Structures are given as structure tokens and as C-alpha cells.
């Protein structure tokens, strides 16, 4: 018994050590920003350097947070401003042992960022989303992302609300495209719970244009007729049919004890109702002969119930595949010249194609008529550098001599003229004399300046006409 006590103590201490180690390993990164020491010190702890620094400066009187400055992977500087002082105020130190699960540390920002999601093209999910239309489903506000992956809703299963709340939730069948949601995409708002039929939530008629909604894409349900059939409004198209997918698994080959081989081929084909058809072919090969057996199984639909196998007849619903001779099933073609057009195919498409060709022919006729005009031909020659009237344009070698008429009076040029006489102005009992004679000497100098400017302007006009 005495020998068992030390063993029990060792086990207890070992268990406590494991607990302490597990706690240490579970500590995620945090940041501690501090200023001062002892009882007068101030600190703030947060998940990121920016949050720690902004929280610290909010506690310091007179300081405003302006940003962080990286010092190292484990140390960031807190930048702040107080009056005209702007600079480093304190430091934020990293604590902990690592980032949370599915995140990676970014040393440039000190933040643990989520790892990019793994998005698989063609993967389907059934998920409930909170509809942004609140009291009524919004036809144009379909969910576009799920878990960071881009999705395409293929069917709306049901919409409901839980009174007294008016918030609407819709359960969709969605398919991943394989693309990752762009950076900055808001998180998808999924419902916190999905009430089952037993919970009796209040059903809401879906108004989104998807299979199962009662109205085709691009339309909304505005009511129901006496038989309960949905009345749809808007310019819509036929309901979206999920694209058929086919996946062929790798062939498995097994060697039997008697020397023969058995090959197994499995092909999974998606049906239009969302179910999946599995075709399994097992072949036994022995001595040059082969015996095969094929079995086909059909899974259930996503909403429950047996599925329908339509993989054996890919064109059973294709009307034109059965009647390619009909005009409506042909690709419309237009042939012939503008004078005589011929069209084969659908009447409506032919009418549209014929109208397009007629307009094209009219534009061509107008263009041909324009090219026959003299102005168009003259402009074409000028653009090509062959102006037929180039010899008529003025040039220095074809200058003409122009004699100024002898009657042109030149007596006032730099001679003659006289100053204005003084002007006497009487206003009531007051008389005022404007002494133009005192300003005469200055006005004469200004007269010569005006004549010089006129001479320069005349020379520029004449030189431009002569030398160019």
C-alpha cells in the first residue's frame, strides 16, 4: 500500500502537467499594448495590434490613435497624435502560441486570417438562408456564397416564417461553382435553425424564380387562381433545369485464383430531379472470352422520395431531336443578294434576319450613292494628296502686285495734328477747366506709340499674305 502512494502522486503530477501543456498549446495569439509601469501603468489587450493600440490610446488622455508600425513579427508600435505631436506612443507585444484552427498568421499585419475555403465544382448542399426581403421573399436577392464558396441556387425547397416575427427564411438546394468568393464579400446570413415540419412554422409562398417556387425565373407570384395554381407576372423563362452531370469512377481490376480477371466500371449520372443513377458493369475475362453484367440503381431525390432515371434517354424531352425536319427546329439562314433574299428556318427568326439584311442593304445603297457624288470624289482626292485645284491656291510664286491708290491721304503720318484745347465745364454756379494743354506733351508721345503699333500690325498682315 505504501508503495502505491508514490505511484499515485506521480500519476497525479503527470496529469496536471498534461493539463498545463494542453492549456499552453491552446493559447491563441493576443496583443498587449502598454504605457507606463507599476500602478500608474495603462494597458489594453486585444486580438490584433491595431485593436490593442487603439484601445490603449483611448485610455490615454489627450491622445488620438493614428495607426500601427511594424517593428518585428512579435512587436508593433502604437502611433498617435496629441496636439502638434505625432509619433510613436507605445508598443504592442504579441502573446500566445499560435493562430486558431483554420487560420494563418500574417506577419505584416499581425492578424490571423482565415484559410481559403476548399470549393468543389458541382458539390450540392441544402441550406437555409435569411431572406433580405424581410416580410416577402426577394426575387433578385438569391444567396450567392456559402462558406466562402460561390454557389448557384438550383431549387427553392420552401420558405417560412416563425410568428410573431415577419422575417422570412428560405431553404435552397445550391450547387458550388468551384470558385472562391472575392475578398471582402460579406458573410452569408444563414438561418440559426431550420424548423422541421413538426415545428409547424408558418409557410410563405416562394417568389423566387427557381424550380419548386411555382413561378418561372424572372417572374413573381402575384396570387393564385381558384384551383390554387400560382399566378405569375413578369417576363420570365422556363424554370431552370439542373445540368446533368456524369462521373466515371476509375476501373477496378481484380485477378481471381483461377487466373481470370474481373473488371468493375461504375458511372454516376445526375438526373433532372436531383437524384443520381449509378450504373455498375462487372466483366469477367477468361481465356479470351468476356462475360459482363450491368446493374442500374437510382437514388432518392434531395427532398425525399424515389428518383427518376432519365440518364438512358438524354433527348427524350428534346422535340427538335425527334423532328429536325421542321422549320422551327432549323437554324435560320439568309442567302441571296439584296435584290432577292431567301430565308430557311423559323418564320419569326427569318423575319428578323430579313429585316436586318434589308437595313444592311439600304445602308450599302446609301454609301454607294454618296461615293458617286462630286464632293465625295473631290474629298477623296484631297485626302490622297491629289488636289485638282491646287494650282488655284495662292502661293509666293503666284503673288500679284497691288498698287496703292494715289488718292490715299498720308499727310497725317508723323506730322500735323494739334492738342485738344482746354475744356471749360459749368455746373450751376461753379466753373471747372480741364487743362488738356498741360497733358499735350504726353499725348504726343502716346500718338507715336499708337502709330508704331499700327505699323507693326500692318506689316504682319501683309507679310503673312506675301511670304506664305
Characterization of the model:
21% of the residues lie in helices and 32% in strands. The chain contains six helices and 23 strands. It has helices at residues 4-25, 49-59, 319-322, 347-371, 374-383, 440-467; strands spanning 30-35, 42-46, 64-72, 75-82, 85-95, 103-106, 111-114, 124-130, 145-146, 149-161, 169-180, 202-204, 220-224, 230-233, 246-248, 252-255, 261-270, 276-286, 289-298, 333-336, 341-344, 423-427, 430-434. The strands form seven sheets. Strands 2-1-5-4-3 form a five-stranded antiparallel beta sheet, with helices on one face. Strands 8, 9, 10, 11 and 12 form a five-stranded antiparallel beta sheet that branches. Strands 15, 16, 17, 18 and 19 form a five-stranded antiparallel beta sheet that branches. Strand 22 and strand 23 (430-434) form a beta hairpin. The protein is flat.
Structure at a glance:
With 468 residues, the protein is of the alpha+beta class.
Q: Which helices and strands appear, and what pairs or packs with what?
A:
Layout: H1 4-25, E1 30-35, E2 42-46, H2 49-59, E3 64-72, E4 75-82, E5 85-95, E6 103-106, E7 111-114, E8 124-130, E9 145-146, E10 149-161, E11 169-180, E12 202-204, E13 220-224, E14 230-233, E15 246-248, E16 252-255, E17 261-270, E18 276-286, E19 289-298, H3 319-322, E20 333-336, E21 341-344, H4 347-371, H5 374-383, E22 423-427, E23 430-434, H6 440-467
Antiparallel strand pairs: 1-2, 1-5, 3-4, 4-5, 6-7, 8-11, 9-10, 10-11, 10-12, 13-14, 15-17, 16-17, 17-18, 18-19, 20-21, 22-23
